[in-house]
């Protein structure tokens, strides 16, 4: 099924690629499915499939494909502000065994009562300063391991996250090439969020147009007013801009790292701008009902806001794009 979408066939999965993942994420966004699906089935699977030794793959990928296990990235720290090289969590090796100590924030989690075997993909520092690009490795830590403390909490869009504390916690090494692997995993997550945002915007726009054609004022549907029709048309334009960049992001996942990172940041900037425009205008066109808990539109808006803030907000990725711009015309030579 869908949990095994990106899992290799040798481990019981469907062995599908980025385009298929994009289609699935669009539908999840359209259906407002609040779930750690992308974190596990795409990001967690990528960490194991592309970077982990064969033993870890065999131990976890079949369970993910069967829907019996969940492996999620535990990436963020309070001081990092989306910067992947800022890692204060430390890893030490004693007699060949690794132990982690540190705190990760906003870790996507499911329900503790769902009975799934759960583990975290954790970047930790083996050497260097807390913001050095070198000296980062990726580890796998089981939720049930000694020294793991999970404090779950709800987010504004109804999803669940947790602050996870590691105290001399046993860990399995995934790869010592931590930062390149981390960037790859995050880019897969960004592409997934972009596709989910497109699906959610499409559904929210459909709700808005239906409301404009139903709500009457002065004896006619308010959708007959030219100013409101133009606003809806602008929302559609933003949706299509976002869709194009989502396609672009998906297709660039197989590009060389520098090109891939630039493309994914460009896509996240456009998605952030489009989601804010579509979400805010949907609320404005609905009036007060647009922000009530009883109305689906409000929940789409909350989800779009959460997506914009996930894995780097618009301003962060705008900075990433500017840093990666190439002066091919020689303007600043």
Would you give an account of this structure?
The protein has helices at 18-30, 37-51, 54-65, 178-214, 226-251, 257-286, 296-309, 314-323, and strands at residues 69-73, 90-94, 97-108, 117-125, 136-142, 148-154, 160-175, 216-217, 220-221. The chain is globular, with a radius of gyration of 21 Å. Helix 4 packs antiparallel against helix 5 (226-251). The chain has a domain at 181-323: Butyryl-CoA Dehydrogenase, subunit A, domain 3. A hairpin with a 5-residue loop joins strand 6 (148-154) and strand 7 (160-175). The protein has eight helices and nine strands. With 333 residues, it is α+β, with helices and mostly antiparallel strands.
CATH superfamily of the domain at 181-323: Butyryl-CoA Dehydrogenase, subunit A, domain 3
Principal-axis shape equals: globular
Q: Do you know the CATH architecture of the domain at 181-323?
A: Up-down Bundle
Alpha-carbon distance between the termini?
53 Å
User: What is the H/E order?
Assistant: HHHEEEEEEEHEEHHHH
Share of residues in strands: 15-25%
DSSP helical segment count: 8
Low-confidence stretches: none
Main β-sheet, in a few words?
7 strands, mixed
Question: How much is the radius of gyration in Å?
Answer: 21 Å
- Average pLDDT, rounded to a whole number, is 94
Query: What is the multimeric organization of the chains shown?
Result: single chain
């Amino acid at each position: 099924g869908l949990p095994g979408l990106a899992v290799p066939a040798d481990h019981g999965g469907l062995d599908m690629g980025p385009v298929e993942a994009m289609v699935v994420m669009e539908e999840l966004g359209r259906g407002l499915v609040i779930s750690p699906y992308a974190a596990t089935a795409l990001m967690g699977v990528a960490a194991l499939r592309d970077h982990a030794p064969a033993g870890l793959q065999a131990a976890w990928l079949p369970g993910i494909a069967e829907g019996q296990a969940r492996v999620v990235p535990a990436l963020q720290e309070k001081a990092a502000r989306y910067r992947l090289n800022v890692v204060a969590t430390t890893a030490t090796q004693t007699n060949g065994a690794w132990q982690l100590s540190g705190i990760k924030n906003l870790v996507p989690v499911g329900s503790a009562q769902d009975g799934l075997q759960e583990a975290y993909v954790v970047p930790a520092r083996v050497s260097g300063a807390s913001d050095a690009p070198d000296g980062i490795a990726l580890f796998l830590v089981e939720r049930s391991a000694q020294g793991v403390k999970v404090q779950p909490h709800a987010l504004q869009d109804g999803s669940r996250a947790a602050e996870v504390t590691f105290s001399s916690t046993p860990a399995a090494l995934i790869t010592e090439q931590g930062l390149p692997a981390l960037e790859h995993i995050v880019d897969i997550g960004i592409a997934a969020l972009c596709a989910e945002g497109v699906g959610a915007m499409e559904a929210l726009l459909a709700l808005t147009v239906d409301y404009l054609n139903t709500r009457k004022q002065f004896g006619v549907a308010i959708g007959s007013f030219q100013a409101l029709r133009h606003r809806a048309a602008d929302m559609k334009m933003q949706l299509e801009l976002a869709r194009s960049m989502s396609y672009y992001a998906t297709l660039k996942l197989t590009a060389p790292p520098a090109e891939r990172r630039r493309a994914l940041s460009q896509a996240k900037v456009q998605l952030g701008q489009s989601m804010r425009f579509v979400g805010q205008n949907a609320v404005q066109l609905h009036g007060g009902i647009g922000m009530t808990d009883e109305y689906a539109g409000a929940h789409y808006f909350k989800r779009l806001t959460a997506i914009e803030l996930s894995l780097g907000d618009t301003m962060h990725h705008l900075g990433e794009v500017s840093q990666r711009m190439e002066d091919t015309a020689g303007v600043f030579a």
